[in-house]
Design a protein that fits this description.
Blueprint lengths: L15 E2 L2 H11 L1 H18 L8 H31 L2 E4 L3 E6 L5 E6 L3 E7 L2 H6 L1 E8 L15 E6 H29 L5
Helix pairs in contact: 1-3, 2-3
Length: 196
Amino acid sequence: MYTDTSVATYASGTYHNMGPRTFWYQFYKQASLPFGVFAVALVLAIARAQGFVPADIAVQVRMAERFGILIAVILGLIAYFVAKIVHRNNTFALTDDALKIRRGVFRKEEFAIPYRQIQNTEIERTLTQRVLGLSTLIILTAAQEHELSRRDEPESIIPSIDRDRAASLQDELLKRSNTQKVSQTNLHAFTTPPGQ
């Protein structure tokens, strides 16, 4: 069972995944085809068992059921491994001065969001995410002037992260960004010429 809820304890610069529940969400997204094929095979099996299938094609229907179940299992295994790869390649790291996000399997992307640019963070949850214990973490930076622009900045959105990890990461980012702002304010106070 997953019990880590504090991202503040992570080693600086070490990349971590978005949480174990995100794996199951990735599997859920990948597994629609295997479940669909399995459902068709199941409907054929029920129809044949209930006598809705004519006797002259019962053998072909039985073969279709078995073939459908075999294809569903193969596609399910593929979906499992694809979900594992996607989960392993979506990570984040808290460094001394920025949040770094890595994602992508074939096309790798890495974004760095300096703490000093973070203005706010928001957590959103769709119905599916609430059921699965997930969240979307949106990081609003100084470069984003209005709410609509955040949707145009994919590097400032973590689309799927465990609910507890999202809340902990949000707290940590706000804490680190406030520390940056305080130090900038203090620095500005010392560089202002006297008498102004």
